[in-house]
Each structure stands twice: as structure tokens, then as C-alpha cells.
Amino acid sequence: MKNITLVLFAAILTMGILLAQENKKKMEAPIYSFTMKTLEGKEKSLADFKGKVLMVVNTASFCGYTPQYKDLEALYKQYKDKGFVVIGFPANNFGKQEPGNDGDIATFCERNYGVTFPMFGKISVKGDDMHPLYRYLTTETQFKEEIGWNFTKFLVDKNGNVVAKFASKVKPGEKGVTAKIDELVAQK
User: Fold this and answer.
1) pLDDT tens-digit series, residues 93-144
2) Contact 62, 93 (CB under 8 A)
3) 63 belongs to the catalytic site
């Protein structure tokens, strides 16, 4: 009888642990469910950025806002040791301002702006072919509107919550942006 009780107890305990693990996965922030291709063609899960503050930016090489790459890189260098990461997503949705392939984009970013923050492969950020990441950002967060132009910036807290959005015209180093980053990196 003791053996049956022990076996039942172990089975119930094991089921409880498995259910808890499954619930934890379900409760995980949706942004961490996306796996993206880097400019080098390697798969990278956004779950690799858990515990970091993220700035998610749609980029383009031939846009009036393209010089923001310099500001994004400066921001990344300023805050990366505090757990902040800029992640760039090239897109050709606005005025065909990102016509190149991923190799062209990588060369452009490195040569012209010395970009060292993670850059991902070209995707669509609006329209019928919108990437699921941007569908999530624009329909399932508090920022329910389509992307207006290149260099729209989303801030994601350490728990994966999308907490701020900045329009293209807002430069990455502006006081409102850096104040929010300071707030987010200070959170436990």
C-alpha cells in the first residue's frame, strides 16, 4: 500500500511540474516566440534577448531618416552594458528605400555607420505580406496602428512587454527616448 501511495504521489508531483512548465511557456511574452533570420542568414530567437530592454526599429538604407543609424549605434554603445539592445529590421515598404539584399544592407550599415547592434534580414512591416513580428507589434500591443514610415521605434521592457513607441521623426538620442530607456534599464 505504501508503494502505491508513493507511486501515486510521484505521478501527481510530476504532472504538477509539467503543467507548471507548460503554463510558464504560455505566459511568456509573445515577442519571445519569434525566430528571425539575421543579415547573415542565421536563425536567431528573440527569446535570446530575455531580460534585456529592446529597441525594435524598422530601417532603410535610402531614407531621409537613415542617418539615425548613427544615433542608434551611439545609443546601443551607451546602454549595452546596462542590458539594452537595439535590433534592426530592414524593410522596403516605404518609397522602395531598402532595395538591396541582406548582404548589401550589411555592407551599407557597416561601411557607412559602423553598425554593431543586431540587424536582421529584410522583412515587410505593413501590408498583406507583413511579417508576423510586425503584425504582433501593430495589432496585439497597446500601439494598434500600422507603421507610418521607416525608423519607427518600439521599446520592449525586460519582461517582453512593448511599453513605448516613437515615430520616425523622433531621434533615438532625444531626451524622451533616453529617459524611458533609463527607466527601463533601472527596473529589476
Assistant:
1) 999 999 999 999 999 999 999 999 999 999 999 999 999 999 999 999 999 9
2) no
3) yes
Give the three-state DSSP class for 95: coil
80 and 136 both lie in a single domain: yes
88: three-class secondary structure by DSSP: strand
29, 47, 63, 170: the catalytic one is 63
Asked if residue 59 has pLDDT above 60, the reply is yes
Cα distance between residue 63 and residue 31, in whole Å = 27
Range of the domain at 9: 1-28
Same domain, 70 and 150: yes
CATH number at residue 51: 3.40.30.10
Per the structure, the count of domains in the chain is 2
Residue type for position 143: F
Q: Are residues 60 and 116 in the same domain?
A: yes
Q: pTM of the prediction?
A: 0.86
The one-character DSSP state at 60 is -
Q: Residue type for 19, please?
A: L
